[in-house]
Design a protein that fits this description.
The protein has about 150 residues and is an all-beta fold. It has strands spanning about 1-5, 5-15, 20-25, 30-35, 50, 60-65, 70-80, 90-95, 110, 125, 135-140, 145-150.
Length: about 150
């Protein structure tokens, strides 16, 4: 994978044949993301925090997709709903941005599994040409893979 110092780096280039939008994100402490804008991939925007919980819950294993029209979806594993007896009980959360990653709407829990989702299986997010968002994750209750499809209203 790519790293910014010792931080994992997500990179997504959008547009063909040359990208007209480049997004990158690094996870720092608890869920901070650092969007990048511009086709040159060198012009970094000011850091934007995507997660909106006030605590210090772990957020990890992020994935990113861009919808037709440039809206951005981030999905990740989140421990904000975990209990002290099961600190590793993660759920899948997502946040959307209608302005290419400059600002993000409130976080939304995509799952509410009693035992949480698999803490080591990374959720994957994809956008369809029609604007639907697809997220694949592994649930611990039934030990199976699930595909969730939804639309984001902007």
């Amino acid at each position: 994978g790519l790293f910014l110092g010792d931080l994992p780096l997500l990179v997504l280039a959008v547009g063909r044949p040359q990208p007209d939008l480049v997004l990158a994100g690094a996870v720092a402490e608890v869920g901070d993301r650092f969007p990048v804008g511009g086709p040159d991939g060198r012009t970094f925007a000011d850091p934007v925090r995507v997660n909106d919980d006030a605590g210090r819950a772990g957020q990890e294993y992020q994935d990113i997709a861009v919808l037709p029209g440039g809206a951005v979806i981030l999905a990740w594993l989140d421990e904000r709903d975990a209990t002290p007896l099961d600190e590793n009980r993660k759920q899948v959360y997502f946040a959307s941005s209608a302005d290419g990653g400059r600002t993000f709407a409130r976080n939304v829990a995509l799952t509410s599994s009693d035992r949480g989702v698999c803490p080591c299986c990374r959720p994957k997010v994809a956008a369809s040409p029609g604007g639907a968002v697809h997220v694949v994750y592994r649930d611990r209750d039934r030990e199976d893979l699930f595909l969730t499809r939804f639309q984001v209203e902007f």
